[in-house]
Amino acid sequence: MTETSTLLAAPVAATSQRAGTRRSFRALGALSKHVLLVLGALLMLYPVLWMVASSLRPNDAIFRDPSLILRDFEIANYVNGWNAFAQPFGHYLVNSAVVVLGCIVGNLVSCSLAAYAFARLEFRSKRLWFAIMLVTIMLPIHVIIVPQYIIFSQLDWVNTYLPLIVPKLLATDAFFVFLMVQFIRGIPRELDEAALIDGAGHFRTFAQVILPLMVPALGTTAIFTFIWTWNDFFSQLIYLTKPEGYTTPIALRAFVDQQAATDWGSVFAMSVVSLLPVFLVFLFGQRFLVKGIATTGGK
C-alpha cells in the first residue's frame, strides 16, 4: 500500500512542480512586459516632462541641463509669456476656442447627416459617391490648399475664421463620415421600421431614433476634431495673418524671433498652457473615444 501511494505521489509532485514552473515563467513574463511598457511610457513622456521642467528654468539653463531636476525655479516665464504680445495670451486661447467650437459643431451636424444618408437612404450611385468620399481621405491638404485659398480670397474671407469653419459644415472630413456610417450600420433597422410605422419621416427618425444612439461616435468625432483643430498650424497660418486674429499655434510660432534672441522659457511656458486643454479633453473624454472606436469597426 505504501509503495502504491509512493508511485502515485511521484507523478502528482512532478505535475505540481511543472505547473509551478509555468506559473513562475508567466509571472516573470508579465513582470517583464510591464517593465518594458513603463520604460516605453517614460521614453515617450520625456519630451513633455522636459518641456514642463524647462518652462520653470532660466533661459541660460534650459539647453544646458537635459535632466528633469529643477535647480532654479523661474515662475516668471509664465508671466512674461502671458504678456509678451500686445494682447494677453488668453486672447489667442479664446480665438482657438472659437475656431474649435465652430469646427466641432460643423462636423457633428454635417457628418452625422451625411453618414445617415449613406447608411440608411437609397439613392442613385450611392456606392460610387461613398467610394469617392473615401478616396478624399487619402488626399493631402497641400493639394487643395491653393484652390481653396483662391476661392476664399475671392469671397473676401481671408483673415476671418470662415475658411476654417465653413468647410466643416459641408461634411468635408470623410474620416468622421465613415466612422459614423459604420456605427449606424450596427444599429438594427427594426428601429427605423418601428419609427416609420409610427409615421416618422427620415429627419424625425434621424433626430429621435438614430442620433441619441450615436453618442459614442459623436463623442469620438468631437474629441478628434478638438485635438486636430487645436493643434492645426498650417491652415490657420495660411488664412490668418493679422496678429489680433492669431490662434494659439500661430501665437506660439510668433515667439520665435529669427533676428533676435528667443525667450525659450516663455515659449515652453505658453506651450504647457496650450497643452492643458488638449490634456483635459482627452482625460475626461477618453471613455467616449474608446467606446466610439470599439463600436464603429475603427479598430
Question: Would you mind describing this structure in some detail?
Answer:
This protein has helices at 2-54, 59-62, 76-82, 89-120, 126-135, 141-154, 162-165, 174-185, 189-197, 202-213, 215-231, 234-239, 248-254, 264-294. It is an all-alpha fold and 299 residues long. It has 2 domains: 2-54; 77-294, MetI-like (MetI-like fold, Orthogonal Bundle), CATH 1.10.3720.10. It is flat and about 70 Å long.
Global shape:
flat
Number of extended strands: 0
What structural class is derived from the secondary structure elements?
mainly alpha
The CATH architecture of the largest domain comes to: Orthogonal Bundle
Treating each run of at least 4 consecutive H or I residues as one helix, how many helices?
A: 14
How many domain units? 2
Largest sheet: none
For the record, the CATH class of the largest domain is Mainly Alpha
What separation lies between the terminal Cα atoms? Answer: 61 Å
Give the SSE order as H and E letters.
Answer: HHHHHHHHHHHHHH
| Oligomeric state of this protein | single chain
Task: Calculate Rg over CA atoms.
Answer: 28 Å
Please identify which CATH superfamily of the largest domain we are dealing with.
MetI-like
List segments where confidence is low: pLDDT < 50 over at least 5 consecutive residues. Answer: none
CATH topology of the largest domain: MetI-like fold
